[in-house]
Design a protein that fits this description.
It contains nine helices and 14 strands. It is of the alpha/beta class. The chain has a seven-stranded mixed sheet. It has a five-stranded mixed sheet with strand order 8-9-10-11-12, with no helix packed on it. The N and C termini lie far apart (about 50 Å). One of its GO terms (molecular function) is hydrolase activity.
Length: about 300
């Protein structure tokens, strides 16, 4: 069930038939048992995977979360309530949990349709019960926290999620990057709390920050291990710039909404991927607007955008 990454870190891929289909959980060895980084989604298949692991005699000391999106936090409450395992979350993460508990289907739909997107299917709802618990411990940015028997620095990297943290061990030059950096795809930067914000500017700042940490190996929340870390960070930044240029080019002459722009870039997609791509398009438009490169006009209650001539 485990694959070895280093002498003290193993990877456990938690699979489930939803979202991206799996999450990388990292198990860091310690004298009191494993520290688990992220849990997977609240789904029967994921629970069965973890239960088999625990039934094998493995001991888990605690669970630490990189961020509180449902595929990383989803089984934290189950670990705590069913097995008495402590859950460790950032203070920002706990604030986000409280926000997500209050997020309504109507609020999210209003945000999406305001940018021309399709309504979320009624059966496509967050399971808010996963946020309904109090973590056992909290950490803050730049705090040194113990994972296994080693100390890691908690680095705040907002963008993909406002409460996203990476964990860095300077001696081993190991970085646990969650969804901040992925090897083969760019993390989606969206408005998952239903509020109009500018997370892409935060993401670019976080990319620059993370490059300051020399890492021989980076452990992402999905996909394969990243060995050329600085190069991959730069590549993701270039990919975002390319998409921004695409957006500007599409709206050089006409006002278009985010759904129309998204379709021109990505084509026809299934509903889950379509929502992620749509969200990425919205945040690019808001970022470009903050730079003065596009302007918006409301048409029949829908925000449309056109590139300014100076661009």
């Amino acid at each position: 069930m485990l694959s070895n990454i280093t002498d003290t870190i193993e990877k456990f891929v938690v699979t489930f038939p939803a979202g991206m289909g799996d999450v990388n959980s990292y198990l860091i060895k310690g004298k009191n048992g494993y520290t688990v980084i992220d849990t997977g989604i609240n789904h029967r298949e994921a629970i069965e995977n973890w239960q088999k692991f625990l039934d094998s005699g493995a001991v888990i000391e605690k669970v630490v979360l990189t961020h509180t999106h449902e595929d990383h936090l989803g089984l934290a409450r189950w670990f705590q309530e069913t097995h008495g395992i402590p859950i460790v979350v950032s203070k920002l993460g706990y604030e986000q949990m409280e926000i997500r508990k209050q997020l309504t289907y109507e609020k999210m739909n209003h945000l999406i349709t305001k940018y021309g997107g399709p309504k979320i299917p009624k059966n496509f709802k967050d399971d808010k019960t996963i946020y309904d618990f109090v973590p056992d411990e909290f950490f803050e940015k730049n705090q040194m926290i113990q994972l296994g028997d080693e100390l890691f620095e908690a680095i705040w990297t907002p963008g993909h999620a406002y409460d996203h943290f990476c964990f860095y061990n300077k001696e081993q030059k190991v970085m646990i990057v969650g969804d901040h950096i992925l090897k083969d795809i760019s993390p989606v930067i969206g408005l998952w709390n239903g509020e109009e914000q500018n997370p892409l500017v935060e993401y670019f700042q976080s990319l620059e920050l993370i490059k300051e940490y020399q890492s021989d190996i980076a452990l992402p929340g999905h996909g394969d291990v990243i060995e050329e870390f600085e190069e991959r960070v730069s590549e993701i930044s270039r990919n975002h710039q390319h998409r921004l240029e695409q957006v500007v080019d599409i709206i050089k002459t006409d006002y278009k909404n985010a759904s129309e722009i998204c379709h021109e870039i990505y084509g026809t997609l299934n509903v889950i991927i379509q929502l992620s791509s749509f969200m990425a398009t919205v945040t690019r438009l808001l970022y470009l607007e903050s730079l003065g490169k596009v302007e918006r006009k409301e048409v029949d209650g829908v925000n449309t955008f056109r590139a300014l001539s100076s661009t």
